[in-house]
């Protein structure tokens, strides 16, 4: 397998359980210093990918490197430099939060350089850390999950549904932590089906469905190329809609024109700008719409080449 | 082996370890007391024909000699239950239980190989089993001293009795751990290990109580635990070889199977 400078690099990674294709021909690169969102519905293959990268599953075909090391033969060293937050994390209920973090830090064999900062930012007071995990709420367990994944200052964080159970305030704090990690050059592989947070925090997003990588895009690019719903109102006679670039599916209701904008917004705005323009509404594109469109187009998308960098 | 995991394995067992140690130490003291206080009475009863002879040599033991009483004490169902807490319960739930709870993936996301995880947990649980056996034998020696019959007990052979016992209970422990690495839930692992223990015990007891079925004892691991013979200086190395094989084979199985298993997300 060729060596790349990517933090995660997979080539034709495939995992079958008998006749069930959990993951098929996944080729993907995640770069240093980026937050990569791995997006897909339940059962799409997100967890299978993560578990293969961490050595929990053995690939049927293909290969994968994490931090330049082969996942099949150098899994232990990979996990030394990686932080992992499983989806719906389970902890040792009979231990206190502090004991869990201490135990996992000892197993990690690296100092808990970031713990104090994470504890403070996620608002886990000492009194809570000294309570047994069995008495924790879902959100508190998730905070411990985040802290254990990041406390040893990993080169790469693999986070499976990391904001599950966190309240909006803590989600903000968590996004701030991710931003700081990125600023320090750490890479984050971030699996989610919460589209708004992927849109908010990720640099790039990979969309996976039925075990196949359907697309990889810069989030900005994905949002930019999305369709937007527009509504325009003019005083007097409306201009010929066919002259407005990117505007499709046009309907006219009185002096108001409705349509769908595809493509560059600035060209569109220049075209409609005139003294007679009375009102213009452009509904912001959401990643959710982009996501749904991808899945609506799934048969053709799935047939497309799955290698993406 | 991983130090923190080994230490935590011991810590998980701490409470039941203390309770069982106290109970088995008391049981160990009680056996020589019963031997010293009642063996003559029981011998008279046996001679009178009131008791079938087989009942008095239950599980290849004997209440008429102190070494025979060691065998009798360790073959008693009470001891089986106490040692079974660790050799069956703790071993078969060790990895399958972590798997079911979902904590195994938190553990395996650390830089520890599965072989090391298995070795650390196995070493921890075998140490607990060894300590519990040692506590029983220590209680037995203390009981013999209290009753003033210590001179009937060749203490110099006691380490070999401990080794023989450790190989027996170690064989059940490694079987339990092999079952534990094979299943995603502790239920089947416990069931399989318990069945293995019961079948072995059944063959031994059946053979000792029913002369025509004596041959079944050869198929029982319990039959190769012979403290009376060891204390009489008549150790049969074949017993150790058989128990040693039963001890090692599940370890080899686990070391082959566990690292190769796919660990899908917990249900």
Please explain how this structure is put together.
The complex is a heterodimer of chains A (309) and B (267). Chain A has helices at residues 46-53, 75-80, 97-108, 115-121, 126-129, 138-150, 168-183, 195-201, 219-224, 265-272, 287-296, 298-303, and strands at 8-17, 20-30, 35-39, 61-66, 69-70, 82-85, 156-160, 187-192, 204-209, 212-218, 228-234, 247-253, 256-261, 277-282, 307-308. In chain A, a hairpin with a 2-residue loop joins β4 (61-66) and β5 (69-70). Mean pLDDT of chain A is 85; it is low at 299-309. Chain A is 33% helix and 29% strand. With 309 residues, chain A is of the alpha/beta class. Chain A starts with 7 loop residues before the first strand and ends with a strand. Chain A is built from 12 helices and 15 strands. Among the domains of chain A are: 8-81 and 155-222 and 299-308, 3-Layer(aba) Sandwich (Rossmann fold); 227-284. In chain A, α3 (97-108) runs parallel beside α6. Chain A is globular. Chain B has 267 residues and is an all-alpha fold. Chain B has one domain. Chain B has 10 helices and no strands. Chain B has helices at 3-48, 53-56, 66-75, 77-101, 103-108, 114-146, 158-182, 186-209, 227-231, 237-257. Chain B is elongated, with a radius of gyration of 20 Å. The two termini of chain B are 29 Å apart. The A-B interface holds A 17, 47-48, 51, 54-58, 75-77, 79-80, 82, 84, 86-92, 103-104, 106-109, 148 and B 2-5, 8, 101-103, 105-113, 260, 262-266.
Give a short account of the largest sheet of chain B.
none
Shape summary of chain A: globular
Count of discrete alpha- or pi-helical segments spanning 4 or more residues of chain B:
10
The tally of structural domains of chain B comes to 1
Share of residues in helices of chain B: over 70%
| Spatial extent as radius of gyration of chain B | 20 Å
Biggest β-sheet strands, sense, barrel of chain A: 6 strands, mixed
Q: Report how far apart the termini of chain B are.
A: 29 Å
Helix segment count of chain A? 12
Strand fraction of chain A equals: 25-35%
Average pLDDT taken over every residue of chain A: 85
User: Averaging pLDDT over every residue of chain B, what do you get?
Assistant: 89
Uncertain segments of chain B of ≥5 residues (pLDDT<50)? none
- Unreliable segments of 5+ consecutive residues of chain A: 299-309
Radius of gyration of chain A: 23 Å
Instruction: Tell me the quaternary state.
Output: heterodimer
Instruction: Look at the helices and sheets of chain A and give the structural class.
Output: alpha/beta
Percent of sequence in beta strands of chain B: under 5%
């Amino acid at each position: 397998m060729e060596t790349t400078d990517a933090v995660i690099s997979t080539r034709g990674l495939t995992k079958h359980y008998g006749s069930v294709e959990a993951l098929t021909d996944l080729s993907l690169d995640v770069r240093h210093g980026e937050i990569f969102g791995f997006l897909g519905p339940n059962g799409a293959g997100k967890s299978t990918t993560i578990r293969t990268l961490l050595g929990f599953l053995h690939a049927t075909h293909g290969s994968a490197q994490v931090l330049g090391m082969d996942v099949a033969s150098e899994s232990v060293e990979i996990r030394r430099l990686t932080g992992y937050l499983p989806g719906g994390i389970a902890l040792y209920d009979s231990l206190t939060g502090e004991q869990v973090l201490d135990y996992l830090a000892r197993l990690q064999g690296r100092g808990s350089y970031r713990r104090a900062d994470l504890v403070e930012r996620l608002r886990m007071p000492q009194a809570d850390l000294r309570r047994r995990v069995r008495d924790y709420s879902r959100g508190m367990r998730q905070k411990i999950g985040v802290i254990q994944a990041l406390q040893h200052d990993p080169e790469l964080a693999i986070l499976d549904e990391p904001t599950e159970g966190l309240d909006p305030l803590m989600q903000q704090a968590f996004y701030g932590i991710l931003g700081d990690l990125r600023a320090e050059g750490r890479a984050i592989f971030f699996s989610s089906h919460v589209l708004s947070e992927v849109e908010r925090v990720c640099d790039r997003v990979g969309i996976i469905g039925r075990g196949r990588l359907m697309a990889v895009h810069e989030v900005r690019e994905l949002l930019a190329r999305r369709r937007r719903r527009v509504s325009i109102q003019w005083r007097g006679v409306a201009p010929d809609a066919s002259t407005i670039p990117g505007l499709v599916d046009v309907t006219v209701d009185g002096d108001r024109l409705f349509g769908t904008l595809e493509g560059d917004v600035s060209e569109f705005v220049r075209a409609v700008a005139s003294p007679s323009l009375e009102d213009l509404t452009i509904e912001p594109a959401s990643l959710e719409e982009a996501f749904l469109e991808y899945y609506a187009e799934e048969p053709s998308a799935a047939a497309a080449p799955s290698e993406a960098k | 082996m991983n130090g923190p995991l080994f230490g935590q394995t011991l810590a998980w067992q701490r409470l039941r370890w203390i309770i069982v140690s106290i109970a088995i130490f008391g049981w160990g003291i009680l056996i020589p007391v019963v031997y010293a206080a009642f063996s003559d009475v029981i011998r008279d009863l046996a001679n009178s024909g009131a008791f079938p002879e087989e009942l008095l040599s239950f599980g290849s033991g004997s209440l008429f000699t102190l070494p025979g009483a060691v065998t009798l004490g360790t073959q008693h169902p009470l001891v089986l239950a106490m040692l079974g807490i660790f050799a069956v319960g703790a071993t078969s739930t060790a990895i399958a239980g972590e798997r079911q709870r979902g904590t195994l993936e938190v553990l395996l996301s650390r830089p520890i190989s599965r072989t090391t995880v298995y070795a650390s947990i196995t070493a921890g649980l075998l140490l607990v089993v060894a300590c519990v056996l040692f506590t029983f034998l220590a209680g037995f020696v203390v009981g013999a001293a209290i009753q003033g019959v210590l001179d009937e007990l060749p203490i110099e052979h006691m380490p070999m009795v401990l080794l023989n016992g450790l190989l027996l209970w170690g064989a059940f422990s490694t079987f339990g751990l092999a079952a534990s690495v094979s299943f995603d839930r502790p239920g089947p692992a416990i069931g399989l290990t318990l069945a293995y223990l019961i079948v072995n015990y059944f063959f031994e007891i059946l053979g000792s109580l029913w002369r025509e079925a004596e041959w079944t004892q050869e198929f029982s691991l319990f039959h190769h635990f012979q403290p009376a013979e060891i204390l009489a200086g008549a150790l049969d190395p074949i017993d150790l070889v058989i128990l040693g094989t039963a001890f090692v084979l599940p370890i080899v199985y686990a070391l082959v199977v566990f690292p190769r298993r796919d660990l899908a997300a917990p249900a």
